Amino acid sequence: MRRNKKYKWYKIADTESELNFPSNNLLQIEVAGKNICIAKGKELYACTAKCPHAGGIIADGFIDQSDVVTCPLHRYKFCLQNGRNISGEGYYLKTYPVQITSDGVFIGIEETGLLSWLK
Ligand code: FES
After folding, report:
1. How far apart, in Å, are the Cα atoms of 11 and each of 14, 29, 103, 118?
2. Does residue 2 register a pLDDT over 60?
């Protein structure tokens, strides 16, 4: 869990199996007005839907056995655990925490706004 950030948790499914992943194990959904890519690797990950390089649709890319996602446009590679651009171009893919509990599958979105630090 990331420290010093406050998250609001959004339920995206009752169970992981309810998420209907296509064959590339990448699924784009909307959560709290944001387009988010859910990736199914060794575990579930969430990241922003668009590549930070030039807006490629991450859900149209592919994920490898090391939980690295490759953008379909220019093939830059990002670690889904931390968003680091492991192919060396210096970009960062925003990631979101995922929690799976007996109540469902949740994505954490940082609380923003003037008073969010008070909560
Ligand atoms: S848009 Fe993703 S690598 Fe260029």
Report:
1. 8, 12, 9, 24
2. no
Averaged over 11-35, what is the pLDDT? 96
Among 57, 69, 70, 76, the mutation site with the greatest number of ligand 1 atoms within 8 A of its Cβ is 76
- Could you list the residue range(s) of the whole structural domain that residue 33 is in? 7-110
Task: Please indicate, yes or no, if residue 118 is contained in any of the structural domains.
Answer: no
Write down the number of H helices and E strands in the chain: 0, 10
CATH number assigned to the domain comprising residue 50 = 2.102.10.10
| 34 assigned to some structural domain | yes
The set of protein residues with a Cβ atom below 6 angstroms from ligand 1 is 51, 53-56, 71, 73-74, 76
pLDDT tens, position by position, 37-77: 999 999 999 999 999 999 999 999 999 999 999 999 999 99
